[in-house]
Amino acid sequence: MAGAAKHQSGGSQDVLVRIQKAWGESPFYQARLRGPAPDRMLCQPEDPFTPDKDFAFSFSRGRMALGEESVDCEGELETIWTRAKRDGPLDAFFQEFSWLRHLETLGDSGRPTAQLLVKAWLDHYEKWSAYAWAPYFVSERLVQLCSHHPIVLSGRDAMWRSRVLSSMARQTRHLAHTAHRADTGFDRLMTALGLCVAGFSLPGCEGPAERGVEMVRRELRLQLRADGGHISRNPSRQLKLAVRLQTVLKVIETRGFQPPGFLRHTLLRTNAMASFFRCADGRLAVFNGGYEDDPRALLFVQKAIDPEVTPASFARHSGYHKLKAGRALVIADTGDNGNTQRYKSAGSFHFSSGRSRVFVNCGNGGHRALQWRKALEQRAAHSALSFDEGLATPPAFGPATHRRAEDGRGQLLEYERQFILANMENARYMRRLYLSAGGADLRGEEYLDDLPEDVLAAATWRFHLHPSVKTLLARDKKSAVLLLPNKEGWRFKSNCPLLALEKSVYCGDGGAPVSTEQIVIKGGHVGQRSGSALCVKWALRRQDAV
What we know:
elongated, Beta-galactosidase, Chain A, domain 5
């Protein structure tokens, strides 16, 4: 039965693909894509993301790898459009034309490679392709072509320029009809913004650009919180959104048009929220599927920040708190990860001292296999409370509340969450984080109340360490010394008589998983209990502090 259902589903999908292909290639739809043929670009949007020259060298030789997928087509670079796995991360990278950013670092020597790949794409997909002309791919491709058009167009004849620019105009008109069909809400928002960039950059495409502006207005109303945070609560998405909004604003101003009133106001809020996650090393704290990301892009956003709208320490609507003292920085996720959030990071936190990251979350497995992605979404992949897999029915997390206070001695943050358990209406969890005024002392208190004995024993607190941190567990296993790259030494202590140091993995830099370690406190090892309650206390103190 399952095999028959799968076969039927696959057959339906094939029929849908054939219908899409027939409609896309029909003279009726092709007529909708006709319009003025542009003869030049009206502006060149800035691309603030950092290019990789080493990747450009490898790519120009036909050797590419992303996640667990790789392609080697040395001497036959134009065949990449048929060699990469369809729907894989590498093929998505190709279709988005993100490689133009990297090839541009090679100067004139990168131009032949870029033009060869663009020609090969046009030979395959110029007229129509349900896959290559998917809204998000088209949007990202157009933004890259607009931003890096000199490497594609320079040094060629008028026929080549006309072919490329005409294709860009046709794709822009196509996007005006299909942008609303992007797969996810964030994709729809980015697709609409890409339509604005392309429409205002190409002569004769002002109509599609206006459609893009209206769609951006609608999607921002649906997806942006009052404090400027995106509903995904993902810092990397927040950064990309801030960059793209700023790009749209600059393109509109370059054309001499008056930007819509909502755009500038929204940009100030999104910029401030992206900056909220910035650590002293210039990168983002890792939460909810984000990465450390690109410090150059973050600097691009920070230059446009209005200090009056910058959230200093609390993003109320997005559910994040920031504690900062001396060289120390704590960013805590105090949101409510319900069923709509893939990453169960509520209650987790980031801690760094100066430019050195100490406690982190494991990051995103977006370019890895499915089992990687599933594992990194779980609570155990965050510096937070989780429950051992051996527990038959782990308690479900309910509504969350948070409070903070500060005085001359330090800052205190309380995060409380209800549990949903039958016959236990008062079951709850509270995490308290206290950062001293000088930043040399971070203390935590983990309190579980009104829970069965087996649940208390299965409670596990994990403190994932950044790969740059070297850890030494004391012989009595009651404390651990952390050695940071900036030469600082910190000691971690707990009222748990038996700390564990276990293996972990870090995917926060966006590349391959890096081995690291985690400090683990298990509820079953804590002897001090009061009936159905459990209180775990821990402290992290800088060793050179007096």
